[in-house]
Amino acid sequence: MGLFASLLGLFGCDQQQIDKVRQKARDTVNAIKPDDMLLRNLTPGVTTEAQVREQMGKPEIVWENDDGSRRLEYPRAPGGLRTYMVDIAPDGKLRGVSQALSPENFEQVRPGMSQDDVRRLLGKPTSVAEYRLKKETVWSWRWLEDGVNTAGMFNAHFGPDGRVTVTSRSADPASERP
Fold first, then answer.
1. Which of 70, 138, 144, 159 gets the highest tally of CB atoms within 10 A of its CB?
2. What are phi and psi of 144, to 5 degrees?
3. What secondary structure letter does DSSP report for 65?
4. What is d(CA 22, CA 2) in angstroms, rounded to the nearest whole number?
């Protein structure tokens, strides 16, 4: 990374630009880092939010809770099968890490839930499809149905008011064979 920064300096990039490039490189590495490395040595009650961010990178989104706690969302891209939710207590220490794309969380998605509520529970969807004639938007997440190697799609269907009308399951298009 030092050689890269030196080259940027030679080409007239200022320190702020160099720092942005370094951060982008770190974020790229963290996005593809294997899960065991991504989650290694994260200890509830000990690890700070700053340490989580150093190890896991920039979260996709940060949810602020009324009690001062925060939820950091880490989807494993591109089109990953896992999304990690990192909960930070009001004191800035790690409360816990959970895999959001689970049968238990899918069961919590109920008619009437808002898009924000679903996003906070499951994270960023893999895809969003809009069906104008049906006046419906469908958010879909790739996940491992058997927890190991069978990919599928969980779908939340939203009406024009942005609330869940129904959920469904479908085959993972990436897994279908011609």
1. 138
2. -90, 105
3. P
4. 10
CA atoms within 13 A of residue 84's CA, in its CB half-sphere:
22
Q: Which domains does the chain possess?
A: 2-99 (3.30.1450.10), 103-171 (3.30.1450.10)
Q: How far apart are CA 29 and CA 31, in angstroms?
A: 5
Tokens (6 digits) for 92: 């800035």
Q: Is the alpha carbon torsion for 42, 45, 48, 53 positive or negative?
A: positive
pLDDT band at 178 (very low <50, low <70, confident <90, very high): low
* Most distant pair of Cα atoms in the chain: their distance: 58
pLDDT tens string 146-177: 766 788 999 999 999 999 999 999 998 877 65
Q: What is the pTM for the complete model shown?
A: 0.79
Which amino acid would we find at residue 22? R
